[in-house]
Design a protein that fits this description.
It is built from 2 helices and 5 strands. With 119 residues, the protein is an alpha+beta fold. It has one domain: HIT family, subunit A (2-Layer Sandwich), CATH 3.30.428.10. The longest helix has 20 residues, at 60-79. The radius of gyration is 14 Å and the shape is globular. Bound molecules: guanosine-5'-monophosphate (5GP) and zinc ion. Guanosine-5'-monophosphate binds at residues 10, 21, 33-37, 45, 92, 98-101. Its EC number is 2.1.1.-. GO terms for molecular function: methyltransferase activity. A motif (Histidine triad motif) lies at residues 103-107. The active site is at 105 (tele-amp-histidine intermediate). This is HIT family protein.
Length: 119
């Protein structure tokens, strides 16, 4: 994905390798990396490589690839040593919904009975 230099998007920078991130999955269409401020340990963000602000802007194949990656990461989390009891899949769409980075991302994070996360 090519962007003009004036296009400042932290997730585009991560996808392009211009900003650091712990990448956990990457293919032609999507990248997934650890959230810098995890709500629980193992919190992953999955993004389309092409800049798109919201779910409505994704193509059919980007949408499928993002959610397939979500399933694959959930499977990896369940078989990791984290021993999670559940998983949240979460999308903030729009500032009023607490979207802070306007490059679409699917949050995937493990849950534990009694953990402190509340929407
Ligand atoms: P939103 O509220 O837009 O759904 O969530 C944005 C998420 O991106 C937050 O969970 C935040 O911690 C994460 N985030 C923001 N900046 C960075 C960054 O530079 N690197 C990484 N890995 N995560 C980030
Ligand atoms: Zn972007």
């Amino acid at each position: 994905p090519e962007h003009p230099p004036e296009h400042h998007c932290i997730f585009c920078a991560i996808v392009a390798g211009r900003a650091p991130a712990h990448i956990v999955l990457e293919n032609d269409l999507v990248a997934a990396f650890l959230d810098i401020n995890p709500v629980t340990p193992g919190h992953v963000l999955i993004v389309p490589k092409r800049h798109a602000a919201s779910l409505a802007d994704l193509t059919f194949i980007e949408n499928a690839s993002v959610f397939q990656a979500g399933k694959d990461i959930a499977s990896a989390l369940r078989s990791s040593g984290l021993q999670c009891e559940g998983i949240n899949y979460f999308v903030a769409d729009g500032a009023a919904a607490f979207q802070e980075v306007f490059h679409f991302h699917l949050h995937v994070f493990p849950r534990y009975r009694g953990d402190s996360f509340r929407i």
